[in-house]
Amino acid sequence: MRGKTPEDRRLLELLDPVAESVGYEVVRLRMMGGAARRTLQIMAERPDGEMNVDDCAALSRAVGDVLDAADVINGDYVLEVSSPGVDRPLTRLKDFEAWEGYEAKLELDRLADGRKRFRGVLAGIEDGAVCIDLEGEADTTMIPFDWITEAKLSLTDELLKRGAEQREQRLASDAGQDDDDHPNHSDEDA
User: Fold this and answer.
1) Residues 6+ apart with CB under 8 A from 37
2) N or C: which end of the chain has fewer CB within 10 A?
3) pTM for the whole thing?
4) In the chain, count of helices (H) and strands (E)?
């Protein structure tokens, strides 16, 4: 799921170690567009789940240097590095565990219970399967991770609230760092 096509997967093999070496994890990689103009989209985050503009720039430089040296993409392309965003894709088994309790949409590569699409509240992971509580179902449904082709968080009030709380914490933390870097001096200090 992190890479859809064989080209995506080859690029992941090349770029995963690069991202890890500078402190990031690739959440998803997609080469998009036609022959005239292609875009290499990389969604990434730090191990703590954060990804700010400076992080995007740092990863973009590291990845760009390797891509230029390896010359593995034919033709012109644009490199786009971003955070996964609030309604993020879920591409790794650990994502389903980390976002337990939040609503998600899953699409499978085969029929399960007569359908390929599921929407429900994530209930963790168990033995390589994603657990999801579907509306109207008494039992938790277990879907093998390998069957999932696409998954993302649903944009809900709970998810938006969590995003707002995380943003407030970052801003408070950044303000605290600024105070430490530039302490206020009183007249008595002068």
Assistant:
1) 76, 77, 78
2) C
3) 0.83
4) 4, 8
Given a contact cutoff of 8 angstroms between Cβ atoms, the answer to whether 26 and 12 are in contact is yes
In this prediction, residue 107 carries a pLDDT of: 97
In a 10 Å sphere around its CB, with 0-12 CB exposed, 13-18 middle and 19+ buried, how is residue 82 labelled?
Answer: middle
CATH of span 6-82:
3.30.300.70
Say which CATH topology domain 93-153 has.
SH3 type barrels. (2.30.30)
- Residue 75 token pair: 């033709």
Classified as helix, coil or strand, 121 is strand
Q: How many Å apart are CA 184 and CA 189, to the nearest integer?
A: 10
Residue 38's SS3 state is: strand
Identify which of 107, 60, 97, 61 has the alpha carbon closest to the alpha carbon of residue 80. Answer: 60
**Domain ranges, ordered by start, for the chain:** 6-82, 93-153
Task: Find tokens 């859809």 and name the residue.
Answer: 4
